[in-house]
Amino acid sequence: MEKRGVEPEPEGGRDEEEDAAPAMERAEEGVAGGSPVHDQVVPAGSSSSRVIVHVDLDCFYAQVEMISNPELKDKPLGVQQKYLVVTCNYEARKLGVKKLMNVRDAKEKCPQLVLINGEDLTRYREMSYKVTELLEEFSPVVERLGFDENFVDLTEMVGKRLQQLQSDEIAALTVSGHVYNNQAVNLRDLLHVRLLVGSQIAAEMREAMYIQLGLTGCAGVASNKLLAKLVSGVFKPNQQTVLLPESSQDLIHSLNHIKEIPGIGYKTAKRLEALGISNVRDLQTFSSKILEKELGISVAQRIQKLSLGEDHSPVTPSGPPQSFSEEDSLKKCSSEIEAKNKIEELLASLLNRVCQDGRKPHTVRLIIRRYSSEKHCSRESRQCPIPSHVIQKLGTGNYDVMTPMVDILMKLFRNMVNVKMPFHLTLLSVCFCNLKALNTAKKGTIDYYLTPSLSTTSRSGKRSFKMKDTHMEDF
DNA sequence: TGGGGTTAT
DNA sequence: ATAACCC
Q: Which domain of life is it from (predicted)?
């Protein structure tokens, strides 16, 4: 049979003989009843086995605030948005403060709690991208999840490091951080070896985050995104954990409810409960046919795979953001004037951000939430193309992009809200999206004539927004 | 429940 | 344009 070897099978030169089988540390406790681990047959170049890390910053907003003002470091600290403590440091957690806790409850639990307003996300967003950029230096395949989590596909990096290692060095490999379940490592198992190297890279990432940015966080290393994410939270502040394949089922079954599976949200969990599915094993063993009929084939197949710990979704590089938005929730907005003032405020911030980014948004959207006693916060939106003459003024330090943009947004507003009738809004948000690198289609170029909205008269003369304003590349 | 984000339909 | 998901 095959040699146990380093993946891309180093040319015959060096042989890993019996001594390549290192004293398998505690291997006799191995799960499979001490049976020697069979050699892994992973075809060279096959992507069937990946090494993924999930990096999760500790109470991110609170950390950013503590870096800004070190005097807060040893005090219980909460970050407040409106009447909520959205996150808090570990000092505060020890005293009973939880994430998303009402400010009153938090103050009651912990009267010494220091609160900082965190409604302006600018510094958090900037720090968040610094983290992503730092991780991209290790490997370009980095996917953001919110402001404080990132996935990195380490498969290639691990492969390269393994190629550099001599067999005796492989024999001396050690894990960095925890091993889930305290499972014994078997260095003759290539999957174990690859995950150990992943754990070392994860440790280097966390060290770099701390040295360069002053941030601490957790990491989880596993063979897919689901498992990496689940395992990253096992040891909590500022620690890391690697999951070896034999413990996957233990990890997934450690969840007490299907809602804890990332990808199964509020709605799906409710529908599953209605089917009598509440824990992971229920979902694993439920009839696929019925599930598909109930949830649609796509969701059904995906979540049932997730319940088994399977997740083939790739780490998709996030790159620069696809949209910029600013929102503000309000107690009550019931006049057009109030709305206009809010919209101007949101827009001013957005214009600064867009200016910094360098790309140009080609679409603008207005989002509202109406007051309604019991409807679960459903939002409504209207969007339209940004006229090209406005787009061109966007990065130029020009200020009279405000006026035309406000005009557009107020038209969108009146399209959604009948201002002649009483209304009560509890949220306003403005979003710039459809971002493009540059205005490429110039008059007289091929692109110009190939862009339908430019070379022909617009189809809808009766739109509220004049299409004579020639929107480029909006089709 | 805040103030963001993404993808699928 | 909305609905689902993520933080």
A: Eukaryota
pTM: 0.85
Cα–Cα distances in angstroms (integers) from residue A197 to residues A50, A165, A285, in the given order: 12, 11, 34
Q: Computed from CA positions of residues A325, A328, A334, A339, in that sequence, does the dihedral angle turn out positive or negative? A: negative
CA of A177 to C1' of B1 (A): 35
The token pair at A233 is: 């939270």
Write the burial class of residue A72 (CB in 10 Å: 0-12 exposed, 13-18 middle, 19+ buried).
middle
Which run of H or of E encompasses A411?
Answer: helix A402-416
CA of A366 to C1' of B7 (A): 20
Question: Comparing A411 with A457, which gets the higher pLDDT?
Answer: A411
> Residue A432: which nucleotide is closest by CA–C1'?
B5
Question: What Å value separates CA A412 and C1' C3?
Answer: 21
The tens digit of pLDDT for each residue in A321-351 reads 999 999 999 999 999 999 999 999 999 999 9
Q: Which of residues 360-379 of A touch strand C (CB under 7 A)?
A: 365, 378-379
Is A149 assigned a catalytic role? Answer: yes
Provide the sign of the torsion angle of the four alpha carbons A263, A266, A269, A271, taken in this order. Answer: negative
Is the CB of residue A269 inside 7 Å of nucleic acid strand C? yes
- Strand A142-145's sheet: what is its strand order? A142-145, A149-153, A52-57, A217-222, A240-242, A178-179
Q: Which amino acid type is present at position A34?
A: G
pLDDT band at A372 (very low <50, low <70, confident <90, very high): confident
**A9 is near strand C: CB distance < 7 Å:** no
